[in-house]
Model the fold of this input.
Amino acid sequence: MAITQFGKRVQTQSDKEIYFISDYRDLDIKKVVISDGLILDYADKEACFTFLKLIRSSFIESIYLVPVFILSLNDDVDDFTRNLSDGVVKSLQEESFEGSFNVIYQRIRQLQTSDTNDLVIRIQNKVLRYYYTRQRRMAPITSVKAHTGYTYPLLGLHYQNANTQDMFKLIDELEAKEYIRPRYEDIVHLCGNCYSAFLNYREVCSKCNSTDLFMENLIHHFVCAKVAPESDFISGNQMICPKCNKLLHHIGVDYDKPSLVYTCNNCGHHSQESVMEAACFNCNTVQNVDALIERKINNYELTVIGEEAAMGGLAPEERREAEFPGFVGFSTFNIFLKYEIERIKSTGKASAIGVLSLKAPSTMANNLGIKYQNVILEIADFIKNATLATDILSFINNNTFLIVSPDNDKLRLESTLGNIQKSVQKLLDSNIEDANITVKIKASTIDNSKGHNELINDILTTNPGA
Ligand SMILES: [Zn+2]
Ligand SMILES: [Zn+2]
Ligand SMILES: [Zn+2]
Done:
């Protein structure tokens, strides 16, 4: 191992720049950019975790996406560290990490540059890209340190407790745009004021709100029908009815305990109906349990649309819509598609949906930069002119254009797309040297047998005809 300023270079067959870091003092986070991967020593747990958090909370893609492995000889790596890393290894041998490393490395290379100043879009982009390159579900972990009891390790790094609501909003937005698909894990009850899960549930007196209650069983004596608190029946070691003076024998036979009754130590009020309240340990708000926020905690996986979005990079929709005149944003497109399916159900007609996608090596798109963007704009313009005025046009990213053609059949749309395909291919070949970009198309019938999700997944996944 050669000594460098940034940990020690790990010897690999593949000549990748992988560094082993065990001394966390004076580390320069920017150096992460020059490495292909890192192995962090867990011997100093705190420092290891702090540095890992620093990496994952960055907004610079070549920092937050870097594959990071944790070196630990014992099986004692905490959940949070484990979750933010790409695995725990027991040695610096390449075999111990190369499998996971290669998968992530390949996936990172599929990503196209994307930039936006919109903070929410940057976080959404980051979440999609992180989980796309990891091929993992975005799963919550429980932690007493987490404000809501559950935390999403990567996403949570960007939110203070006070911004919990914004974090949920971001997740819901990704779900609404169908980039991610939820799987239920649990439900939590959170303070209606601050979203904390650290709550103190207790019954209070319905008259004076005191929590100082004496709870006891209510006794119902069958023989004489007397109903009174248990304490009224107790006489030494026995239970004797205060009304008929008979000895109580067996529960269920001569008496039972139908419910609880409380006596308020503050105001003396007796009642069977207490009120359940929750006091928040974080902000001290006392609230009726009905006022608590109920939130489903899911884990999420990327949909096909989400994977496309991860590769191409998200941009604010308004900007894209302005960039591509005549095109609508993807969420608007989805709404159109849903309406179209409903319309077809009632009219019995058929419409068609199609896709035109460019398969370009991402390095090429990145290298060409603005020139590539201009070609894409020309393609968008071309698609608009070659389609009908009634067609709905959209895009998922720079490489994937979608079209809904109402009352048009699949074959006709296919032939329109075929013509566009030929011209676009010509346009690409004449504008970009050694373009190596292929244009694929596919069309499908919109009938009432498939939902909009299924339709979009279908045209995106099955190999489009060349
Ligand atoms: Zn009271
Ligand atoms: Zn009695
Ligand atoms: Zn609170």
User: Anything to note?
Assistant: Residues 206-273 form one domain. The chain has a mean pLDDT of 89. Residues 191, 193-194, 196, 280, 282-283, 285 surround zinc ion (ligand 3) (CB under 6 Å). The CA atoms of residues 203 and 276 lie 4 Å apart.
